[in-house]
Each structure stands twice: as C-alpha cells, then as structure tokens.
Amino acid sequence: MHYEDYRREYTAGGLTRDMLNACPMTQFEHWLEQSVRAQLEDPTAMVLSTIDDAGTPWQRIVLLKGLSHGGFVFYTNYGSAKAQAIAANPRVSLLFPWNEIDRQVIATGVAEKMSVAESAAYFVTRPRESQIAAWASRQSRPVSARAMLEKQVQVLKDKFGKGEVPVPDFWGGYRIIPERIEFWQGGEHRLHDRFLYSREDDGWAIEQLQP
C-alpha cells in the first residue's frame, strides 16, 4: 500500500467564530454531546500526553469521566507510569480524536489530584469487576503471565466476598485544568477551521489559526 496516496476530503461542515461559545468548556460540552449523538464508538476517549522525569514524552488513551471545576477528569492507579510522569511534570496535553465527524479538540494544562472524597464518589459507581481490577493491577509494572493477574483477581474476589469493595489508597482521579484549548474542524481542500482559546486573567481570548 502506498500510504502517501491515501487521503480523503473533509466535508462534515465548517466552523466560524460566531458559532463558538465564549467559554471553551461549554463549547467542548456541546461538541461532546454532538459526538455522542453521532454514535461515535468512543466519544469520551482522549489521548493523554505526559513527559516523565527523564524528559521522555509518552501517550496513551484514557477515558474522560467528567468535567469538574473547569477541568477534564480521569482516574488511574497513582503508581502507574502516567501518574509518576505527572508527579514529575504536571503539565500535560489531551487530544480528542473525533475523526468520524472531522473534528478534534486539543487541550494543554496542568493536572492536579482530586480529593479522596471526589475519587471515592466515583469509585462506588464503577462495576464491581472494575473495582476489583483496580485492586488487582499494579498498573505499568511487569507481570510474568496473564494467569498471575487473573489469579490475583480471584484472590480478591474471595477476600471481598459479597461485601463492599473499599477504595484503594493508591487509586484516584486527576483534574486537568486547561490553559489552551483548540477546536479543529476539517475543511475541504485542507482549508481546515481552527480556533484557539487561551486563558487570560479575566476569561478567555479566542483567535483563529491558519490550517
């Protein structure tokens, strides 16, 4: 296959300044709702980019679990590679790749840990299997075989029985407070529409970028 020959036109629609809300988080919610209505496979999937203490960038897909206090929320093991990278450098980037509707949203900002109460409030809403998985996995650490992980899951199922699964002290949420958010709408002949929100003391500045 000649990858350089693969291309398509972006015809889902344009984006103009008067279509944007003054608040980027409100605009994001509007686009996310449209993504859900368009029945995208994973509308809340976002690429989280971090830089660790060695200066190495890394990316992975996590799921958006809420918008809280002006930030994007996700949950993870605090011993994971992403959490260790955030501890070293809390400046991160997010990408929502809504390719099916010719859109993407990019946000950069600072990640902060959520409170224990906030994390617990979400944990109790998770399926029981996911609660146990949070206990079983020492995320990002080596494992000799999948069977070892499955055995640990069974041990925890036996331990907790039918009782309540407590919130692990090594698990919780992060809130990413954005400083810049770009909304990208694909356009015909590669004349895409891009609008960048930048945080200012009294609100947000909006400027249009060339494609």
From TrEMBL:
Binds 1 FMN per subunit. InterPro entries: Pyridox_Oxase (IPR000659), Pyridox_Oxase_CS (IPR019740), Pyridox_Oxase_N (IPR011576), Pyridoxamine_oxidase_dimer_C (IPR019576), Split_barrel_FMN-bd (IPR012349). Residues 33-155 form the Pyridoxamine 5'-phosphate oxidase N-terminal domain. GO terms for biological process: pyridoxine biosynthetic process. GO terms for molecular function: FMN binding; pyridoxamine phosphate oxidase activity. Keywords: Flavoprotein, FMN, Oxidoreductase, Pyridoxine biosynthesis. Residues 171-211 form the Pyridoxine 5'-phosphate oxidase dimerisation C-terminal domain. Gene3D superfamilies: Electron Transport, Fmn-binding Protein, Chain A. It holds the Pfam family PNP_phzG_C. The keyword Flavoprotein applies. Its EC number is 1.4.3.5. It comes from the Bacteria. Catalyzes the oxidation of either pyridoxine 5'-phosphate (PNP) or pyridoxamine 5'-phosphate (PMP) into pyridoxal 5'-phosphate (PLP). Homodimer. This is Pyridoxine/pyridoxamine 5'-phosphate oxidase. It comes from Halioglobus maricola.
